[in-house]
Amino acid sequence: MTMTLNDLAILPATTEKWLLVYQDEHLLVVSKPAHLLTVPGRHPQNQDCLISRVQQEFPSASVVHRLDYDTSGLVVLPLTRKALSTISKEFQSRGTKKIYQAVVSGVPEPSEGTVDKAIAADADNRPLYKISAEGKASVTHYKVLSLLPQQQASLVQLEPVTGRSHQLRLHMQSIGHAILGDPFYATQAQQQQSSRLMLHAAVLEFTHPQSGILMSFTAEPDFLQALC
């Protein structure tokens, strides 16, 4: 069995509240704060999480996709079995669209491009991952949105085609532009530039499981305030 970060460490849950972005009888869309697991971890002290908090208000809410503990942003939570099944199939077939925003060190060149590098578990440094030709195919599109000269950094848009663990972090680090505040793949100086991982799920699009209408949601990141 593969060990994960949740198995190995106690991850203190933030006191920051989750935000309700959309609600109907079939599903919720919420915005998860950073420093909160999406689902309970295996460690007994990692039970406080997004879904446990949401279920206090919406007991039938369930999880169909996750964001890392360090990552903030949009999550869809089905409220019915039909919605869970339908949305799960859409995620599995990559029919959903997810766009992230991140602050990375330096300025990527070219300003728009694609990182196509396979990712594998790092057996010598669990629970980390690594770029490896023997890993699973992983593709990320990136685009520079604005420059942050004071921080010697850039705000970038990241669109993962695949959904590998730590994909966005690794892909940006692999081209020399680590995400600021990343406790795993950034340098110590880059980590110290932010009090949190500067990665946010900003756009989420999927087909409504009942109506068939394309649903599109946007939540702007607030992590620019976290720059130190």
Short description:
The chain has 228 residues and is an alpha+beta fold.
How would you describe this structure to a colleague?
The chain has helices spanning 5-8, 50-55, 81-92, 167-174, 188-192; strands spanning 19-23, 27-32, 72-78, 97-105, 112-116, 119-121, 129-131, 139-148, 153-160, 199-207, 214-218. By secondary structure, the chain is of the alpha+beta class. The chain has one domain: Pseudouridine synthase, CATH 3.30.2350.10. Strands 1, 2, 3, 4, 5, 8, 9, 10 and 11 form a nine-stranded mixed β-sheet that branches. Strand 6 and strand 7 (129-131) form a beta hairpin. Mean pLDDT is 93; it is low at 1-6.
Which helices and strands appear, and what pairs or packs with what?
Blueprint: H1 5-8, E1 19-23, E2 27-32, H2 50-55, E3 72-78, H3 81-92, E4 97-105, E5 112-116, E6 119-121, E7 129-131, E8 139-148, E9 153-160, H4 167-174, H5 188-192, E10 199-207, E11 214-218
Parallel strand pairs: 3-10
Antiparallel strand pairs: 1-2, 2-3, 4-9, 4-10, 5-8, 6-7, 8-9, 10-11
Q: Any key phrases for this structure?
A:
single chain, 228 residues, alpha+beta, 11 strands, EC 5.4.99.-, PsdUridine_synth_cat_dom_sf
Could you name the CATH homologous superfamily?
A: Pseudouridine synthase
Using the coordinates above, name the CATH class: Alpha Beta
* Global morphology: globular
Question: How many domains, as an integer?
Answer: 1
> What is the helix content?
10-25%
Q: How many individual helices? A: 5
Low-confidence stretches: 1-6
Whole-number average pLDDT?
93
Order of helices and strands: HEEHEHEEEEEEHHEE
Instruction: Determine the CATH topology.
Output: Pseudouridine synthase
According to DSSP, the number of beta strands is: 11
Pairing-aware structural class of the strands and helices?
alpha+beta
The percent range for strand residues is 25-35%
In angstroms, what separates the terminal alpha carbons?
39 Å
